[in-house]
Backbone:
């Protein structure tokens, strides 16, 4: 009888243990299945970083700096003007004698004669200072302008009255009116109206046609 009671008690404990294990297993399974439907939020909060220093006065970076200093202006190109329009009717000939219709002989010609109607305005070839205004015995009213680099320009056979307002030492710009075509050169008075134009560099005569041809129209 005692063995039966002991066996009964042992069996009861085993049954209770199995029931407890079953309840725990069901509870764990239910808990797992319940958490399957839970939506976990793993997103990282959006934090704004505080500003570092004051950038309101920051200057933009120029990756392509100019090589030209804006405070330094480039030198202006020299300007040159044709004294008058028209064709050269007598060429530069300082070494070879050419016939003079007025003098009826052969002589050298130190400049070029540019045909142009009487009264045509004569323009300064380039910027410079008026060196002299004279009434030359043979070439008539003559204006001489001194330019840079030893260059001088000579305007001869001008109208006697048209250059009266000019004064020696006055500054003129390229293209300024310095006189008008006249007939005051007695050694060329038989020629058609024209300007007798000469150029010298460091006191040596040069061919004015070479300089005038370089001027762009």
Residues:
């Amino acid at each position: 009888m005692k063995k039966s009671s002991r066996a009964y008690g042992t069996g009861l404990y085993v049954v209770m243990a199995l029931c407890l294990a079953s309840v725990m297993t069901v509870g764990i399974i239910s808990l797992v299945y319940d958490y399957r439907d839970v939506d976990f939020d793993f997103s990282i909060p959006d934090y704004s970083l505080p500003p570092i220093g004051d950038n309101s006065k920051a200057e933009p970076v120029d990756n392509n700096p100019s090589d030209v200093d804006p405070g330094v202006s480039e030198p202006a190109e020299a300007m040159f003007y044709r004294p008058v329009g028209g064709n050269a009717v007598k060429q530069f000939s300082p070494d070879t004698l050419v016939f003079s219709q007025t003098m009826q002989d052969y002589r050298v010609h130190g400049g070029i004669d540019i045909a142009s109607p009487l009264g045509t305005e004569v323009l300064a070839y380039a910027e410079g200072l008026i060196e002299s205004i004279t009434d030359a015995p043979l070439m008539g009213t003559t204006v001489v302008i001194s330019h840079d680099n030893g260059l001088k320009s000579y305007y001869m056979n001008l109208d006697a009255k048209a250059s009266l307002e000019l004064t020696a030492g006055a500054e003129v710009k390229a293209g300024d009116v310095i006189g008008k075509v006249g007939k005051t050169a007695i050694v060329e008075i038989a020629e058609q109206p024209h300007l007798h134009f000469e150029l010298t560099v460091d006191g040596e005569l040069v061919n004015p046609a070479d300089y005038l041809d370089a001027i762009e129209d």
The chain has two domains: 1-36, 88-213. The radius of gyration is 54 Å. The longest strand covers residues 128-136. The chain is about 20% helix and 30% strand.
